[in-house]
Amino acid sequence: MGDCLFCKIARKEIPATIVHEDAHCLAFADINPQAPTHVLIIPRQHLADQRALADAPAELMGHLYAAANRVAAAKGLQSFRTVVNTGAGAGQSVFHLHLHLLGGRPMHWPPG
Ligand code: 5GP
Ligand code: ZN
């Protein structure tokens, strides 16, 4: 989608600190980190949110999680949290599907 922020990052039209990329996804540092490690993993394909996975190959989310595992290992994280916010009411602010990878500090439960 032409005017989508994360599509522009995927096309390298907007700079980001990229920590992993492959044919299907891109991982980059969050601009407003909520933990010492805060990386966003996005599909190259524009999908507005998790519900749009219905229009994507079944293995795509597994691929995003595999990329998150790879980044977590590269960062030496002993524990971490992966989060997908779906819809504004759940905190989603960028409507291109993304997995948050958070680590490097104690995590609390339940999340806010
Ligand atoms: P959401 O609130 O949709 O779950 O997460 C969107 C995330 O994107 C937020 O954590 C926010 O800090 C991050 N973000 C928003 N704009 C940019 C940007 O231009 N560059 C990067 N690297 N992250 C961004
Ligand atoms: Zn997009």
Short description:
Helix content is 19%, strand content 22%. It has 112 residues and is of the alpha+beta class. It has one domain (5-103): 2-Layer Sandwich (HIT family, subunit A).
What do you see in this structure?
It is a single chain. The protein is globular and about 35 Å long. The protein has 112 residues and is an alpha+beta fold. It has helices spanning 5-10, 60-74, and strands spanning 18-21, 25-29, 37-43, 80-83, 99-103. 19% of the residues lie in helices and 22% in strands. It contains two helices and five strands. The chain binds guanosine-5'-monophosphate and zinc ion. Guanosine-5'-monophosphate (5GP) binds at residues 5, 16, 28-32, 40, 85, 91-94. Zinc ion binds next to helix 1.
How many β strands by DSSP? Answer: 5
Radius of gyration, in angstroms, nearest whole number: 13 Å
CATH domain class: Alpha Beta
Helical amount among residues, as a percent range? 10-25%
Fraction of residues in β-strands: 15-25%
Main sheet summary = 5 strands, antiparallel
* Helix/sheet category: alpha+beta
Q: Let me know the average pLDDT.
A: 97
Total domain modules: 1
* Poorly predicted runs of 5 or more residues: none
- Helices and strands, in order, run as HEEEHEE
Reading side by side through the largest sheet, how are the strands ordered?
A: 1-2-3-5-4
- According to CATH, what is the topology? HIT family, subunit A
Tell me, what's the shape? globular
From the N-terminal CA to the C-terminal CA, the straight-line distance is: 31 Å
By CATH, the superfamily comes out as HIT-like
* List of distinct ligands in this structure: guanosine-5'-monophosphate, zinc ion
